[in-house]
Fold:
Amino acid sequence: MISFKLNGQTVNVEAPGDTPLLWVVREHLTMKGTKFGCGMGLCGACSMLIDGVSTRTCIMPVQAVANRHITTIEGLGNPQMMSTLQNAWVEADVPQCGYCQSGQIISATALLSQNNNPSDSDIDIAMSGNICRCGTYPNVKKAIKNAAADLRNGKGRLQAVQVFDPTATASPETQEVQS
Amino acid sequence: MSVTEQPLTQNKQTLENSSRRSFLKKMGIVGGGLVVGIPLTGCASVKFPNAMDGDLQPNALLQITANNDIYFYLPRSEMGQGVYTGLTTMLAEELDVHPGKIQVKNVGAHEEYANPEYGLQLTGGSNSIRVHFIPLRQMAANVRMVIRQAAAQVLQLPLDQIQTDNGMIVANGKKLPYGDFTKVAAHLSLPEETPLRKKADFKYIGKHSKRLDAVAKSTGSAEFGLDVEFAGLHRAALKRCPVSGGTVKSFDDSKVKSLPGVKAVVSIFNGVAVVADHYYQAKATLPVLDVQWELPETLSDFSSDSTEAGNGKQLFKAALDSDESDNAHKEGNGREALKTSDTVVSGEYWAPYLAHATMEPMNCTAKFTGNKLEIWTGCQNPGVAAKLAAFYGDVAKDDVTVHSTFLGGGFGRRISSDYVAEAVSIAKASGFPVQLIWSREDDTKRDYYRPASMAEFQVGLDKDGNIDSWNVKRSGPNILPYTIDEVTDAMMPGFLPDGMVDWISKAGYGLFDGWTVDPTSVEGLFEDYDANHKSVDHVTVDPGLPVGFWRSVGHSFSGFFKESMMDEVAISQQQDPVTYRLKHLKSNPRLANTLKLAAEKAGWGKPLPEGHYHGVAVHASFLSYVTQIAEVSVNNGQIKVHKVTCVLDCGLAVNPEIVIQQMESGILFGLTAALYGEITVKDGAVVQSNFHDYPILRMNESPDIEVIIVESDEAPTGVGEPGLPPIAGAVGNAIFAATGKRLRSLPFKLS
Ligand code: FES
Ligand code: FES
Structure:
């Protein structure tokens, strides 16, 4: 059994240790916001935050995230309560087909958590791992800049949902990784 | 009211479209014939999931409940192009309700959702806004009228004292929801010719651009085909023959059966599938699954890089040079006119096969319950998908239910339903409800590719250097036979005698070869410019790699060919490419206008930053007119596109921001093709597999894009595709300006 924090909640999964995190989250935990695009770490559709870093989870073995903090698109906000970036995304009408957008927003969140005033080239560097076949790049850029401005004005938050974590005070469990 | 009454300019292209329809009709593949318009009266035969007492349900598209919930059942598929918002905006306008108040639902398969122009429930050809512009608004206007009539009856007031505002009846200074009157309205007969709002009175059309699906798609809550989940669902991976069209000779699953999670191994029409609890388990078994293949005859011998006669590009070249061709179009004396030309400028062009590479790989979920079959998929052609599912599932058509999801990209790929046939076959053979997931490798290697094409132009000039005759010949595969092959099993048996089915399926290819030319093979090569004489010829040559509709179809290569050639002609006469084009656009004023505007906006002819050069291209497609000017630099053989100025005339822009986004989208899609896109074949097998060898343009490689929409009162025309065709030509022409090298093959390589 492998245990990690998913959007603030401790989860335990029975899966071989080399199973990609993406499929554990999508199929074992049935959270479908994070997408499958290439399976080779090339497109960014499967991006999640692992301890705050945007990571390609289609090639990340679940055993490597034991006890770490994972945030998916669902952990940033929901239709009733969206994060600043998600709001900016809606305001700028970013999504077209929408399939790459969870990954785009995750990478943008990682960027703004480090830098709330990114230049065009900062944005290019942070976002070039996320392919959008629909070509939403101009609006992705616009939305990131708008959200960054909100954050600088103290009007925003990168994570909108308050997560209640019942295990937060419990002592950490010990896990054995199956392989 | 029918779509033919739309105030559309009758130009060359509408004629071309109608000839395409008559061609399809001649081939007998337009289902039950051309269906014009959407039934506007009478009760829909579609059962709505949330039907309740007191509903007003005038047809299959709209439902207003007594609670004043308004549901719009979206007849076209949302794949990023914006119909979810666009069609809703049109409905909202005449219903007098804010678009955001309407709940939009994806629909299954039903003939009442047929595309008015095709007779099939097909989303493609950039026609959704255009063909629904009148019928959908007319329907909504009639419904608003019947609600007003019901309100007049209930409130005992004359009709002219019953007004509406955002889903409410306004009368006697009071506001009452539409839902209060639906029960009475449902018993009145629906008026038919309610006047439509004038442009000056539009509240939402031309103004509203907020995507109604943006919240769902920004929070991970929009459901795509791949996201379907229910208890007992298994996952499948399919091992196919490396060569498309190959079938299973034999297989040995002894090494697979005992692997973790594996529930079944089954052989289907094109491969061997492994069904497991989880996708990663199913996929992991494929390398050790031993399958012997029966290779298809033609394709197995084909290699793109072969230099042998009759193979690789030589195949296309020999066809182009042969005397055997079909004439697709002739004006004046055609090719004969070359004899009297003062000068002839020629050029030979090439464009490779291309994959669609939608972000969401192909997938489909299938579940049998007794004789009933349900499928879940996001596709552009749910009607055909349902019929294919019935055929491969061996159930009656009426026993198939399609659950449609959002599409993670379409671009024409999801017109074909091959993945539906596979998923249904696997579910049937294994007895499990399955979700078939294609890997990116499957998706890249098993596409209906944009057909590779070669073309030769011979442009005859008069003594003043103006174009007298425009002659072009194209060689390459046609899309239609593959389309026919796919739909034949599913659609033909309904109205063709046995035996015919097989005959057309197998012989269809030869059937119209020499009879007439598939319009998608030559569209865009010849229409735009004035010439006294024109001739368009075609030679069919097909290595056997399946081909299909790829964003902008024939225009995807013809736009590049024609616009590069036009540049060559202008430059051969030492004339400015913009001025020379304008001279030959006298009978194409809307296209000429976009060119003038773009030249002005981009500062054509004005100094650019050191090392930067402009290239221009114009192209009309899907009844819209586009000019693009690309600003490019070339350093050490590296091509960089800095900026693209794009002017579009698409008639009235229903959602202007979405129109701008579709231009950006088309430009970036076309840039990927211009700079990187190439599918090659080795011994019949596609070489490329994933984004490392089939790269897609990334943010850091994307230019700034400025889009200008021409103000227009004309009816709306296409936007999903027309942004793509000019871009490769514009960039190629800029590369010529920068380097003096004319690149006549895609993708561009400077070596
Ligand atoms: S699916 Fe993980 S990077 Fe593409
Ligand atoms: S919105 Fe379609 S791939 Fe990005």
Notes: Chain B has three domains: 33-211, 225-297+362-437, 312-353+450-739.
